[in-house]
Amino acid sequence: MSADAGASALPTPQVSFLDCTPEICPYNQSFYMYRIDIVPNAVFLALFSASLLAFVVVFALTRRGGPFTIALALGLVCEILGYVGRVMSWQNQWSENGFLMQICCLTIGPAFIAAGIYLCIRQIVAAFGPENSRIPPKYYTRIFIPCDVISLVLQAAGGGIAATAVHGADSTDTGDNIMIAGLSFQVFTLLVFMLLSLDFGINTLRRRRQQLTGGGNSSGSSKHSLMFRIFPAALALSTICVFWRSVYRVAELSRGWTGPLMERQDLFVGFEGVMITVAVYALNIFHPSLCFGEDMMTTDGAKSRGAGQDRDDQTQFEMLPETKPSTATSVTDDFRGASPYASDVERGH
After folding, report:
1. CB-CB neighbours of 98 under 10 Å
2. Which residues on adjacent β-strands are paired with residue 64?
3. Dist CA 50 CA 26 (whole Å)
4. How far apart are the C-alpha atoms of 106 and 95, rounded to whole Å?
5. What is the pTM assigned to this prediction?
6. Of all residues in the chain, what percent carry a pLDDT higher than 90?
7. Which range has highest mean pLDDT (91-95, 141-145, 221-225, 303-307)?
8. What is the helix (H) or strand (E) element at residue 269, kind and residue range?
9. Which tens digit of pLDDT belongs to each residue from 206-221?
């Protein structure tokens, strides 16, 4: 009896994490609520590394989409560091360094990926018709990028506070709540973004149908490549994946580090790793620099055009000079038959 009692008393709070080994402490009393599986974490580490390399190579070859590449690269670096931390934790689940690395990096990484998505939608609106959007193309970045920065700051601050609390064996509640606030704000921002994008897509399809019914020219985007026309669907898939992942992380953290979702490694692999992998590879395969080609701005902030034409240097990622879009109800017949790049022509003068 006494021997059994002594054995059951081994994994008690008196045993420090620094002294724990699998022989004397169960894995559910480590920083994780389960035994980390090395296979999915190593696979994600390899996939994100390959994705980062692909984005860098495309930028080096095309010299277009600088801000987009920077945003995705930062996000992927965070993902890579996060899974390096999980591999370190597989070796020792009671090691503080690996745990803090993965919780901080994997929390903030998708915020950078969301920033890249926000940069893409501005170009899509400009290409498929600003008149179909509730807001001018430039306001997609002016509204959603600052919101993404706020979300990123909250998540990073919360992660830092939680990490300090773990190091000092204090309560992580304050840091957790700040991280949840940042993730919740990211979910709200993505939801508004998705609603605006859906409204734009519906208006674009309705206008195209009206043009075809009226015998006018269809949208000029039809003369572009198949990749150009599929790109909005790829961007939508990437957005949904980041949104799904963010909702999961809010639910996961809402019950603290010992909540029921923290015990589910399968949910972490599916809703964190798989969702972000699909999000980045959708943008790898349908890279905006490849889909838009020469219509994308080069790294010096100008689109490739004739020597005598004006160049717009407002932004490195903007495809078209900004013009105030007309509303869907006030577009003239002349504009319906015009090229989708009519924003390069002075109007109303």
Report:
1. 23
2. 298
3. 35
4. 17
5. 0.78
6. 47
7. 141-145
8. none
9. 888 887 776 555 544 4
Q: What gap in Å lies between CA 73 and CA 193, rounded to an integer? A: 22
Q: Residue 141 is encoded by which pair of tokens?
A: 């970045």
For 160, the token pair is 């830092």
In this prediction, residue 312 carries a pLDDT of 40
- Measured CA distances, 144 to 85, 132, 188, 193, 324 (Å): 30, 19, 11, 8, 19
CA distance 72 to 325: 29
pLDDT 10s digits, 235-285: 999 999 999 999 999 998 888 777 888 889 999 999 999 999 999 999 999
CB distance 324 to 131 below 8 Å: no
Distance in Å from the first CA to the final CA of the chain: 96
Identity of the amino acid at 294:
E
pLDDT value at 344 more than 50: no
Residue 347, helix vs strand vs coil = coil
State the Cα–Cα distance between residues 166 and 169, nearest whole angstrom.
5
